[in-house]
Amino acid sequence: MAPYLLLGLTFAGILHVLFSKEFVAKHLGGNRFSATVKAALLGVPLPLCSCGVVPTALSLRKSNASDGATVSFLISTPQTGIDSIVATYGMLGPIFAVFRPIAAFIMGIAGGAVTNLFDRSTPSANTLQTPVPECKLCVVSSPHKHTFFEKIWGMAKYGYGDFLDDIAKQLVVGMIVSGMISYFVPDDFFTRNIGNPFLEMLIMIVGGIPLYVCATASIPIAFALMLKGVSPGAAFVFLAVGPATNAATITLIGNVMGKRIVVIYLGVISFFAVLAGFIFNAIVDTFYGGSLNIHHMSEHVHNQVTPGTIFSIIFLVMLALSLFRNYFPNLWDRLVAKGKTAAKDEAEQRVQTFGVEGMTCKNCAKRVKEDVLKVTGVTGVEVDLKGKSATVSGTFDNAEIYAAIVGAGYKVKE
Predict the structure, then answer these.
(1) Can you give the pLDDT at residue 6?
(2) 401 Cβ contact partners less than 8 Å away, ≥ 6 residues apart
(3) If 174 and its partner were Cys, which of 12, 140, 217, 239 is the partner (CB 3.0–4.6 Å)?
């Protein structure tokens, strides 16, 4: 997967620089069917995982995106992204790589349309909020431009840094689970003990809904399941349901948008995932004789020694650095702070605590910490998820800290 993961991370960085939150919010307002379609169309390529997409979607809703467009975005975005599309092609082949984003697009539209049927209200003009102009490369909100090299650096920093940090742990877990399935589960286990595609799909839904796995990390798991006899359609159901849902996301959506939206959200994903699974099996039966010859694909990937080894080493180094940032954040912060404070006078340093509303999980705290660390003069950030606060040290402007927290999708508690 390494060459395709590196290419996908590159595209993720490019999209991050090109698509601003204001651009997305501009096209998702009102209970119009076109807004639902646009939400799904914008959501498919965006590289956001199921937990990371929630603050973005709820921020768009506060910016006057309709519930239908918000649900469409919530369903279509985590199922796939430019990074996972490329990785899917590399590991599962072109048919999966094409079918997966198309199905996510249709599911998003369906979810948004069903939501609009039950919610025809229009947000009051008094509640509309104009999003703060956001720059993806710095915290300056006034009109300004960046050089080509600054944009390239911002793209690389996000794609190979911030975004990789978001999926690194899940990717490693996905690879470990894939290896365990390949080693411990007999090759004919599902064929011998289940042998019913519909029952396999139901098992994938039951196991996939509460599971937290990103679109890219789900690929090696689906690959291993197919090696053990799971039908391609059932593997697709896992690819759709696993990334699109998890327990934390379901809870947050229920608290913010209501239980009815949760029922629509889960119902649409489950129904259309199974429907798409049967369609996918029919396509495989018609054009591939009922089998995708996944064993041959496994050997083909394994035998890519020369270029594959080079790309694997490069990605392994990047993954190791990402895991280091994830598991030893304080040490990493000290290393970063040492470079940032080389020319600073120690007497100017100060410490201040800011209340942060909207954080629900470790990824939320990580996002706030990373965005605040980007502020000029910040030398350290400690985020207390339980206490809903961020303690910032350094020489900084409070307005820039506010802008960073808001830009991350959260609210500063006065």
Answers:
(1) 84
(2) 352, 354, 372, 375, 378, 392, 412
(3) 217
